[in-house]
Each structure stands twice: as structure tokens, then as C-alpha cells.
Amino acid sequence: MIPSLETPIFRFALFAALVLLIGTGAYARYLEPRVAGVAMFKRLHLFGGLLLIVGSLLDVGFTAARALGELTPYLYGAYLTRTWNGQWVMLRVVVAALLMWLALQPRAELKLIPRVSPVVLDRVLHVVLSGLLALTLSMTSHVGSRGEPLPIIGDWLHLTGMLVWVSAILYTALYKFQAPRDGVNVLERVSSLGVLAVGLLSLTGVYASLVRLWAPELLSVTQYGQTLVLKIALVAVTLVIASSNRFLWMPMLRRIPSRFPRFQRVLTLEAGMLSAVLIATSALGTTAPPERGAGLKQIIKFNETKNAVTLAGTANPTALGGVRLEFAITPNPAPDARVDVALDMSSHGMSAIPLTLERLGSNRYAANGFFGMTGDFDVVISSQNAAWRVTLPSR
Are 344 and 377 in contact, with CB atoms under 8 Å apart? Predict the structure, then answer.
């Protein structure tokens, strides 16, 4: 079985849409007002809103189809209106539409409340709607599904810090400033904002790691831990580039502003690394973190024949809430036959986790898995035009 990548891909599309929808508006309001009149920024803003709305609705469709086994208009509507995930997605669509509407309103005419400056009202509405929009992503992640207030707030702040950092760097790299000195002045503000964003990301990242990984071994034995290590490595490389920009390039640019256009190419590299961090974050956000106490409580034996091929074996509990599968396939698979094993977590809104296969003999295999949370999980084993689904209860 090949695990579905639909959920991580959609997650990254949603992050990218937030950078386009929220980031362009924030950049124009707080860093460089002149970009508000640039056609490219207007198009990016509207495209971000459309991408967020369409991507969210499609993501619901794929998630519902995996969870329900089929998808009809009625089932789609029921999933959208009656589930936690669907209801937050509906709110996301409404808030995204409001942010797109806000961008189309001339600030001088935004007189919705008497005696309140249109500029102040515009900024307040943008902050409130942007914060609510980011919250909808936290509430539809594994953190939100657990309903614990502090982890939700931490995830929301972490996402906010990431949006601030990515947007500030990306749009400073893209915008063609009228004069190099203007770019240097904006860069000073971007640098200060970046320091605050990195501080916020560090604090919330450490907090999230301590909450979700209670043992060092989990960094290596769980997919969540391995993905987190990859993300940390990407962030470390990005910080090296960002530090070089702040402490080497900026002092030179203060003296020689004419080099700012050349520096924008360096900023593009930092923006590219931040995009890689967002991809890792997308994978992390759709991978169930280990849950303390969750695990297989007893040995499960299975024996099933499909298409004249028999699968027989056991699922054994392991330390830290894991499971070790040992099974045999008869008749023996051909030497070049492919055997796939995955822990299917689609009913929990997470991607399937491929398990590394270990060959014990000519037709005997083993694989280790890890439960991210309590509930029933399916191990899917496929070989020789046959596929078996073994349900494992995690309690």
C-alpha cells in the first residue's frame, strides 16, 4: 500500500494561502504601504484567498472519503456541517471571504463605526480576521482535535510567528523599491520583526516538543519525532542564513544602500528555506504525535486468506506504546515481489504511516509501528495482488 500524501499537500497549500492572503495585507499595513497599490500584490492576495477556500473544501472531501469509504454530496454536506473539522473549515471559508472583501474596500470609505478612524478600523479588522483565520488551522490539526487550551494557544502562536517571518522576508525579497534606501529602511523593520518572530517560534516550539514527546527515544522511533528532527534541522540552516543577513549584510547596507537589490537575491534564499520549513511543518501537522499511555494492550493474532494467498501472524505490544508485527505470507512471495505495510490512520484525519519492513526468512516478515493516539487503527499489508486489513485497538 502506498500512503496518501493528500493531507500534507493540502496542509502546505493552506499555509501558502495564509502567507498570500494574510501576509500581503499585513505587509502593506505595517511595513511598506506602497505595495498596496501594486497589481502583483493584489493578485497574490486574491489568489491566496481563493486557494485557501478551494483547498479547504477539497481537503474536507478527501478526508471524508477516506474516513467514510465513499463520498456523495449528502455525505460531504453531513461531514462539513456535523463534524469538528468540517465546522471549522466552514468558518475558515467565511473569514477568508471577509478578508478578501476587506482588501477591496478603500480605507478612506471604511466608515462602519462612527467616530472611529477608517485606518484604525481597517487594521483592527485585519488583525482580528487574520488571527481567527490562523486559529481555524490550529483547531483542525491534531492539537485542536484534543481540545486542550494551552497546546492550542501554543500552536496558534507558533503558526502566527511563522506567518510573520515568512511574509516579511518573502515580500521584501519580491518588492521592487523605488530607491535602495527605502528598501534598507524597510529591512530594518523586517529584521526587528524577524527577531521577535524567531523568539516566539523558539518558545512555542520548545513547549510543543515537551508536551508531545515525553521520552527522547520518541525522536527516533516515531514518525512524528523523525519529522520534527527534520524540521529543526531546516530551521537551524535558515537561522544561519538569517543571522548572516542581519549581522553581515545589514551593517554593509547601512553604509552602501546601493547594494540592496543584490541583497534581495540573498533574501530569496532565506525565503526558499522558510518554504522548506513550511513543508516540514505540513508533514508534522498531519502526523499524529505520540500519546502517553496509548498502545496495544494485548497480543493480537490474525490469519486470513485472500486470492489464494494467506497472511498469518501476531501483533505484539512494545515499549512506549508501539506495536511489532510478525507475519508470514504463503505461498512464498516471488523474490522480486513487493510487500508493503502501513499503519492507516485516515479515520483520525491523519495520513497513513508506512512501516519499514524487516525480512526474517523466505516468507516471514516483521515491522514496527507506533500509535499516535487511542482508538482503532488498521494495519494494511499488501503483496501478490492481495491486501489484508488488520484492526488493532489502541487503548
Answer: yes
